[in-house]
Amino acid sequence: MTGTLLNIVTVLIGGTAGLVLGHRLSERTRQTLLSGVGLVTLVVGLQMALSTRSILVVLFSVLLGGLLGEWWRLEARLEALGDRLQRWLSREGTTSSRVTEGFITASLVFCVGPMTILGAIQDGLLGDYRLLAIKSVLDGFTAMAFAAALGWGVLLSVITLLVYQGGISLSAMLLAGAWAAGVGRDVPAVVELTATGGVLIMGIGLLLLDVKRLPVANYLPAIGIAPLLVVVLQRLGLL
Helix H segments across the chain? Predict the structure, then answer.
């Protein structure tokens, strides 16, 4: 959990700095910051997506994940959670939609990706939080840009970090024997999980660039479906 706690601290520091600086920055400057993050996010997502060894696994994972997400109404539930937190915590006139946007966007960017999965597993299995330390630095600067553009809702993403990333680390600690032989970037399940996450990251990049507003949260089940699909195909001798 050391890496996750470090990640939470850097996001809070970076987000707070962004809030302080955000009042001194013009709307155009804040939009420039957000667009810059969007461009880099798009590139990172593309790099991740191109790591796939079976584009069909990624395709079916995204499609099945989207169906499940629509059925479970994940996007709507996340928005409702953000709105409830906003009503509970807000003491000023910040609009709930802005807080929700910051919360959802930051949560997805900070929690979907190979560094989150592999870093959390390494931290839980071996107590090695170096990968999460690198991710923490990146997330801190990203939180600064997000908070300057989207407001204090970005700070609420630490809840998602604690539950999701911290949960993976705790699971790895409990299932150390099962995970020990599988940690690494070349494991097929991890490769396809990474590629599928890259597709979702690209969706976030498009959203940040205001090119296309996609219900990215509804595709989140694809992250779990991808490695499961790989395991099933391997058992059937099809992969």
Answer: 2-22, 27-49, 55-72, 74-89, 96-111, 114-126, 130-150, 157-160, 166-174, 176-180, 188-208, 221-235
Report the SS3 class of residue 213: coil
Rounded to whole angstroms, how far apart are CA atoms 29 and 182? 44
CA distance 65 to 117: 18
Distance CA 149, CA 239 (A): 44
CA 178 to chain centre: 24
Distances (CA, A) of 134 to 130, 140, 197, 226: 6, 10, 19, 25
pLDDT in tens, 14-29: 899 988 876 676 778 7
Report pTM. Answer: 0.71
End-to-end CA distance of the chain: 34
| pLDDT tens by residue, 139-188 | 888 888 888 878 888 898 899 899 989 998 888 788 655 544 554 555 78
| Domain extents in the chain | 2-235
Q: What count of other Cβ atoms lies within 10 Å of the Cβ of residue 162?
A: 15
